[in-house]
Amino acid sequence: MGSQLALKSRIASTGSLEKIFNAQEMIASSHIAKARDVALNAKPYADAIFDAVQAVVSHSRITHPIVRKEEDNPRVAVLALTADRGMAGAYTSSIIRETEELLARLDNAGKQPQLYVYGRRGVTYYKYRNRAIASTWEGDTDKPGVEVAEAISKALMDAYMKPASEGGVSELYIVYTEFINMVVQKVRVLRMLPVEVVEAKVESGPDMSRESEAGEPDTTVRPLYRFEPSLDKVLDAILPKYIQSRIHECLLEAAASETASRQNAMHTATDNARNLIDSLTRKLNASRQASITQELTEIIGSADALNTKEE
């Protein structure tokens, strides 16, 4: 009887958990479509400003902080985008693991990383381990707004523009989860600043592949840029917009990834809870059948004993 009571208790508690998991899955399912669309719709704008910055720095010989910082400054900033809530599978743990690996690589390279964390789970993890954190942000990791992106970009911008003597940093890294699709989300490490200069590739087309009369291909002329009022002022105006757009894109990608991870985790948890209930129900039925069989055996044995005594 005791075993049956224990099995009934486990079935009831597992049923309650199954309802919670199912509710969380339904909530995540209702949010994922919007989060995915917002992330995908914001990506072209972030890519456009990134391409514009790449075009400017690759075709100009400049010494602006957007492409170059003091080489003798070992301090670098690392921003980790984690989640506020749990029940998202390995989402936050993957971010933390990648962040730890990045911090270790920077330490081995002689750098002095300064950690910035967004998300309550990551903040709790590093505070519990007494890790120094330069700044933290919490709230709405599954639906971040422009205000959060502005606050984070301002803090990182201030740290990057400070000189080394005042505690400034020479590089900015961000660790986030890129949303690929509903099943695949990939943890990425992005160096926001300084911008890596990529040589512009010249694509060959019908007009570009024409040959001269001597049979030699024409030399393609790279586009030239005129900066008004000046190059430094243009880049000073671009830099904060570039940082904010990149951070906002990463926040939206991370939000979509978190929601997708939570939906997948809750779907798996719901299936596991149902399988466990089925297994416990079979054990309960087997225990009940064994108990009934034992009672019938005792009754039959007692009746046989009484009949034998009367004879």
TrEMBL record:
HAMAP family: ATP_synth_gamma_bact. Keywords: ATP synthesis, Cell membrane, CF(1), Hydrogen ion transport, Ion transport, Membrane, Transport. Produces ATP from ADP in the presence of a proton gradient across the membrane. The gamma chain is believed to be important in regulating ATPase activity and the flow of protons through the CF(0) complex. It is a peripheral membrane protein. InterPro entries: ATP_synth_F1_ATPase_gsu, ATP_synth_F1_gsu. The keyword Transport applies. It is found in: Cell membrane; Membrane. The gene is atpG. GO terms for cellular component: plasma membrane; proton-transporting ATP synthase complex. Belongs to the ATPase gamma chain family. Its main location: membrane. This is ATP synthase gamma chain.
